[in-house]
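Priority: medium. Attachment 1 of 2:
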């Protein structure tokens, strides 16, 4: 056995991802005890030394370098960490080795430190210090890699499992007594002063606390026969037990990938949904033959999981990409689509804007895929479209506000009348640039760039009349209006709140420093924040939005729509569609990504079980997100 690569089976409708095998690599050196990844290289702590694999081609890992330890030096590397061009390794029974891996094809041992009187099997890097942990914690200065220097011993309450460092906090799992005779614990240290760790607090686990990872305010502990234990570490001086999932075997290691926890449990990988950390739920339990030992594992940003361990020298590489969504249909034109509008009352018809031609009326349920019913070519560069009653309102940038009668362009009933082209009712051209439009009651609100916000009375759609204005030098391009308040964003990194209870005299109530594109008000205010992902704001005081949480999507967040109160769907540019769990506003979590090959997703709408998406030159696409 050796390195195995895995891919995912179809798990449509689930947020947790079950790993499946792709291929394998078999090391000749025997048992592998630890694995770490840096860049395109995989570093293995193995019997008799260090192995380095090139995983540029994730399906074909290639051994490119190794260092074989001598019997006098130590029999195996039990744990390692990679920092820059150095590997720091806990070598049994010797102590600490430092390897220079600037040339990964020829790793060189440049320094070492021999522990005396006890065996340390874990190494954790905190700045220029290596923390060796076992029955106690030894602090070694490695600022000069060729001359590691002992600094201090820190007494522990028991044998340590695998620690975890986050900012200035060190989380140390304490294993506890045999057969859970005395429970393990999680101990939190302040390591702001790296030479003088200070214990903050601790909390008991159920059995053997063997390893820990921390995400946000939650610690996830692989707890031996106690399974996975979750701990609230919001207050470091008084961490509290949150919940538990009792796995079938012996939980030795844990890794996280967004709202999914992967637990190595005997010869199985247990996949748990931890979107609610207090109540983890089982997603899958895949048997992995590691010869009976629980492997070490990590999950990396490239959506791969790397595992090692077991007396059969197994190293696994698994694909943990988000579940594939079902692409239903596509409608293309010569020019990129940048906006789409569809509501449940319009279903299955959509209004879509492309960057040149104007507004399309599309039948999304036509046999064979979405079909264009008709087109209206606007005079300017269309930006956004909204339908209200029988009218469509288009922010047409240089062409002003275009108001169309689309009543006869969208069929109604089981036997639709003949389709007619949209009829122009009016154009309002007094604003130099119209970037965006939103409607509330009998008013249309225009984001008019440096001319501010204009309020038009559209009680007669054929004769829009300006009744109010909020003047500003800000380049306002996006607007969302609900009730008495308008939320406006532009290119200068601010969201402005306007009181529009009197539409004739909009007044500013607050300005918050957040760059944003589209805004969406539901129970909260959701902001598509370009390279910053999705921001969630509280509107408990609607005059002053307060930032609650953020999730940094991988692409450029252009717009957002909601699917109920727990799901947000983000148009994430060239990264596609990001599906976000917003049930916990302070900690939104990305559940899945749907990449649109060759597409640049700019706008998104969800009137029913399908997302209707404007995906640039790929066109208008429909994606089935039922159950996600």
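Attachment 2 of 2:
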């Amino acid at each position: 056995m050796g390195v195995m690569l895995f891919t995912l089976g179809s798990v449509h409708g689930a947020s947790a991802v079950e790993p499946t095998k792709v291929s394998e690599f078999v090391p000749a050196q025997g048992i592998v005890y630890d694995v770490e990844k840096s860049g395109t290289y995989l570093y293995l702590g193995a019997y008799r030394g260090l192995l380095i694999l090139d995983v540029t081609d994730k399906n074909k890992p290639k051994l490119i370098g190794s260092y074989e330890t001598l019997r006098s030096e130590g029999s195996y590397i039990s744990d390692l960490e990679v920092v820059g061009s150095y590997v720091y390794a806990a070598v049994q029974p010797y102590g600490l080795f430092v390897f220079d891996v600037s040339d990964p094809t020829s790793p060189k041992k440049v320094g070492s430190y021999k522990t005396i009187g006890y065996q340390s099997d874990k190494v954790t890097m905190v700045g220029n210090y290596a923390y060796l942990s076992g029955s106690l914690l030894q602090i070694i200065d490695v600022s000069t890699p060729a001359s590691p220097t002992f600094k201090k011993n820190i007494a522990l309450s028991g044998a340590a499992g695998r620690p975890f460092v986050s900012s200035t906090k060190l989380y140390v799992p304490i294993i506890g007594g045999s057969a859970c005779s005395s429970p393990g614990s999680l101990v939190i240290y302040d390591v702001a002063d790296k030479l003088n760790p200070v214990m903050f607090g601790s909390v008991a686990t159920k059995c053997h606390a063997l390893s820990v990872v921390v995400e946000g305010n939650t610690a996830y502990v692989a707890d031996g026969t106690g399974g996975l234990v979750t701990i609230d570490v919001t207050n470091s001086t008084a961490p509290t037990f949150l919940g538990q999932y009792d796995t079938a075997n012996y939980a030795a290691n844990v890794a996280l990938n967004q709202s999914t926890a992967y637990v190595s449990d005997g010869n199985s990988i247990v996949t748990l949904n931890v979107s609610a950390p207090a109540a983890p739920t089982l997603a899958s339990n895949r048997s992995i033959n590691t010869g009976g030992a629980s492997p070490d594992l990590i999950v990396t940003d490239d959506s791969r999981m790397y595992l090692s361990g077991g007396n059969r020298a197994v190293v696994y590489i698994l694909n943990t990409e988000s579940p594939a969504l079902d692409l239903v249909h596509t409608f293309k034109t010569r020019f990129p689509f940048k906006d789409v509008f569809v509501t449940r009352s319009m279903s299955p018809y959509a209004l879509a804007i492309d960057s040149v031609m104007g507004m399309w009326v599309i039948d999304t349920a036509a046999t064979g895929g979405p079909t264009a019913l008709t087109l209206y070519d606007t005079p300017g560069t269309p930006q956004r479209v909204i339908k209200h009653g029988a009218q469509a309102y288009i922010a047409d940038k240089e062409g002003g506000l275009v108001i169309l009668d689309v009543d006869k362009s969208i069929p109604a009933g089981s036997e639709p009348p003949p389709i007619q082209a949209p009829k122009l009712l009016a154009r309002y051209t007094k604003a130099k640039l119209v970037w965006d439009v939103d409607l509330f009651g009998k008013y249309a609100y225009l984001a008019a760039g440096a001319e501010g916000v204009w309020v038009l009375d559209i009680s007669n759609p054929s004769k829009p009349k300006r009744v109010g204005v909020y003047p500003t030098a800000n380049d306002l391009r996006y607007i969302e209006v609900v009730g008495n308040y308008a939320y406006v964003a532009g290119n200068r990194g601010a969201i402005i709140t306007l009181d529009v209870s009197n539409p004739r005299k909009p007044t500013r109530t607050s300005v918050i420093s957040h760059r944003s594109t589209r805004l969406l008000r539901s129970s909260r205010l959701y902001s598509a924040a370009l390279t910053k992902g999705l921001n969630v704001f509280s509107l408990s005081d609607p005059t002053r939005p307060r930032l609650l949480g953020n999730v940094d999507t991988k692409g450029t967040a252009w717009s957002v729509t909601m699917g109920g109160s727990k799901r947000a769907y983000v148009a994430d540019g060239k990264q596609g569609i990001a599906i976000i769990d917003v049930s916990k506003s302070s900690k939104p979590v990305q559940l899945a990504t749907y990449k649109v090959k060759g597409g640049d997703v700019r706008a998104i709408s969800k009137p029913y079980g399908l997302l209707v998406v404007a995906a640039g030159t790929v066109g208008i696409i429909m994606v089935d997100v039922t159950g996600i």
